[in-house]
Design a protein that fits this description.
The chain is of the alpha/beta class and 260 residues long. It has helices spanning 17-25, 64-73, 86-94, 147-153, 190-196; strands spanning 2-5, 30-36, 45-50, 53-58, 76-85, 102-109, 112-119, 131-135, 158-161, 164-167, 180-183, 203-213, 215-218, 223-231, 237-240, 245-251, 257-259. Strands 1, 2, 3, 4, 5 and 8 form a six-stranded mixed β-sheet that branches. A five-stranded mixed β-sheet has the order 11-12-14-16-17, with helices on one face. The mean pLDDT is 87.
Length: 260
């Protein structure tokens, strides 16, 4: 009687039978997973309540000046990992009481501005009566929407076991705190991305924040720790040598390495 729904790009979304058994035993109609909101979450929804109903508010629909306020007040970030009772869903459809919100996004694809229209499964949470919000580990929310996300999941921060991505227990920070990765436009296309990490993704186990801009290529066995910023000036190339360890450093276009 139940259906599990998740985003196709969320590599952390797997069927947890223990959660399903709990939902069935408690006759839950709609169950959604949430994680703690972090600075890395710029696109998605936060869970809140209004007039006794739970609501999912999309961050992309809020004015940018309000985002910081929202991040401080609302900490439950919606994963879009949802269990729905099919009988309850059918009843709402028959009675035409299912209200799905339409969300608009301004995107840039190959330098062309487009308008994306989408409906969000989380918006229907307000239509169900028996609702459960479940806080889940960050490992259940690993979306890969860009090469910056791919850079993260291809690193030693994760391993694959029985089709599941598992976080590395050796990370010195809180297990649910993932590094913020910001790769520049030279990394956007997958072929360019692969050419810039010919020996694989650097060791990110002790990384907090990485920003890369310009023509940058990583060598083999590179380790990044703390906050690392690498900026290659226009017309210059930065080749990070094999075996390099960068911890709280700024690397500039003339290959100077500075303490950050």
């Amino acid at each position: 009687e139940y259906m599990f729904i998740s985003n196709v790009d969320n590599l952390g979304a797997t069927v947890d039978l223990n959660l399903l058994y709990y939902i069935v035993d408690n006759d839950i109609e709609f169950c959604t997973g949430v994680v703690d909101l972090t600075r890395a979450d710029q696109d998605g929804g936060v869970l809140t309540a209004y007039k006794g109903k739970r609501l999912v508010v999309e961050l992309s629909q809020l004015p940018k000046p309000h985002l910081e306020t929202v991040a401080k007040k609302f900490t439950a970030f919606h994963t879009n990992n949802v269990w729905i009772n099919l009988r309850a869903l059918h009843a709402l459809l028959v009675e035409e009481k299912l209200s799905i919100d339409l969300v608009t996004h301004e995107r840039v694809v190959d330098r062309l501005k487009i308008l994306q229209l989408e409906t969000t499964i989380g918006s229907v949470i307000k239509d169900f009566t028996k609702v459960l919000t479940m806080k889940v580990p960050r490992s259940r929310y690993l979306p890969v929407k860009s090469t910056s996300d791919l850079f993260l999941v291809q690193s030693s921060l994760y391993s694959v076991s029985r089709g599941m991505l598992l976080p590395n227990p050796g990370r010195p920070y809180a297990k649910d705190k993932v590094p913020i990765i910001k790769l520049g436009e030279q990394f956007v296309h997958i072929q360019d991305y692969l050419e810039r990490i010919p020996h694989g993704v650097p060791d990110l186990l002790a990384l907090e924040h990485l920003t890369v801009a310009g023509d940058v290529v990583f060598g083999a066995n590179v380790t990044l720790k703390g906050t690392v910023i690498i900026v290659a000036n226009e017309g210059s190339v930065i080749m990070i040598p094999d075996g390099t360890v960068l911890e709280d450093k700024v690397v500039t276009g003339n290959l100077r390495i500075l303490d950050h």
